[in-house]
């Protein structure tokens, strides 16, 4: 598994590499909710971030991991031991970011769902804001909980779809797959 410093560096490299992508007028801002606590989640986060940065309908992608309070990113295997002050400040920063972006995207990985991402999608729904889920993995073998399946305005099933999805005109798409 990548170290936290390596993951952050890869995210910054992706952002810098996409700086030449021509954006359409009125391109949207995105809050990218995704876990980074397993190899699969990290792989999907990096691929999603790359696809979103290369999508011409997106002007900015907010990644919570790149915006942790005090520059201290939580790493289950690291030395940083977050305290209550860090937790409250990070939570408030994430809530503010969801409020300030146009669309919330939640990456939901089959069999390895991140509860924080589910909350972020729910919070966007409570605000009446558009949300899109990226359902990654085999959802027939590992059914999804009904809340993240039903809650988002639309969904995609691949990073190729993320790269071309029109975030300026989000077409409703009803989840088709097993739910629990």
Spell out the key features of this protein.
single chain, 180 residues, alpha/beta, Rossmann fold, 5-stranded parallel β-sheet, 5 strands, globular
Read across the widest sheet, the strand sequence of neighbours is: 2-1-3-4-5
Identify the quaternary structure here. Answer: single chain
Count of separate DSSP helical elements: 6
Shape: globular
Would you report the number of β strands? 5
The main pleated sheet reads as:
5 strands, parallel
**CATH architecture label:** 3-Layer(aba) Sandwich
Radius of gyration using CA atoms only: 16 Å
Uncertain residue ranges: none
How would you classify the helix and strand content by structural class? alpha/beta
Structure summarized in a few sentences:
The chain is of the alpha/beta class and 180 residues long. It contains six helices and five strands. It has one domain: Rossmann fold (3-Layer(aba) Sandwich), CATH 3.40.50.
